[in-house]
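Neuropeptides capa receptor structure dump, as promised
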Amino acid sequence: MDELDILNQSSGLLPLDPKYFYYLRYVSSDANIQIFIFVFSYLSIPVISLFGIIGNAMTLSVLIRHGFRKSYNIFILALAIADTLFLVGVNNIPRILLLADKFGFFYTRTESLTLYVVFIVQIGMELNGKYMSMIIPTFVAVERFVAVYFPLHLKSLITCRRARLAVSVLFVSWIPANIYFFMLMRYDYLLHPVSNTSVGYIMRSDLMLNHANVYKVISGFFFMISGPIPVIVVTAFCVAIGVKIQSIKNQRRHLKNYTTIIHFGNYVHCAGETCATLDTNPKNEHITYQQTPNTKYNCEKSSTLEHRNEKNIKFPMTRNGAVKIDQQNESVSQTTITLFSMCVVYAVIVTASSLPSIILNRNNWESDTGALVELSTQLAVCINCSSNFLIYVTMNKSFRTTLKQILSFTKNGR
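structure tokens r here:
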């Protein structure tokens, strides 16, 4: 008979029962489950969280350099803060000590109370950060949807002021929820019947014990609005944005089929036909390709486009006669692709992590299965909170350039 059973039988005041104590699902007689819990709690989640915290700190540095004159930068800033809150909160040090010390703080009264306060703070960071990081991608998806389908109305519909207001309201709205969840716990400093020493315990409050059905309804509501519902919304907008992106790509591919521009020395060939000879040093001149009903290919050198009701493709020229590609459309496309990719990754990870919680019966939560589902969900959310930095670095040239400048500045100490 181990210490847990002795305590359970010898103390009527302090029964170690899941009805009264938190985290008893982490106690398992199965060696494989114990290994799983140890690897996830002490290795996987902390390592991924550390990487994510560093990545989000670099993201904040880049955003500060770029400024917040774009609404999507405000959303990315809020998302980075929310991700960091969760990554710090999920690695709850007092909770780790609690599990290591048989679900109690075997310290002095002051030390145990301090650990409980830190435990509450980190639980608040975990809850608040998770809810924010689950909901903010819906703001990003809506903003990119408007940018893709209604670009002329983007600045008037989604202003920076409205973006800041939406994020502020979202952060503040979770304060009552945190207060309610804090009221579900209580702290007691009681005599341990085996060691004959006083121990600090985190237990379920009378509010939770006497109103279990209310707790199930409220927790289910918050689960839905911070999991399945945002995922459905983001997925729907991602599909719409993806359709538009593919349509734009098809249009560009269709335009490329009209003509191929190749230059040899001072000549430009349009679909096999030689255009006018270029000057050695053309200034502010353009090669214009025009397709008309009468002539299949008509190339000329001009500085303006005067033909209407015709397809005109204008190519600015550099000093050496090469075609100069306009980078503005490319940067806009990069922003859309980057944020679109972030939303897709979010939808996939959160969907995969939410399904087990939906399938699992709440009555089986305090079991080996409940522990596995909870740790797997935490790991999935950690991956989601840490992946955004990799997406920004991989897919956005402007982000990479600014990050290199920051790192080189720090390295040189200037």
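Confidence is low (pLDDT under 50) at residues 1-15, 258-317, 322-332.
lmk if u need the other ones
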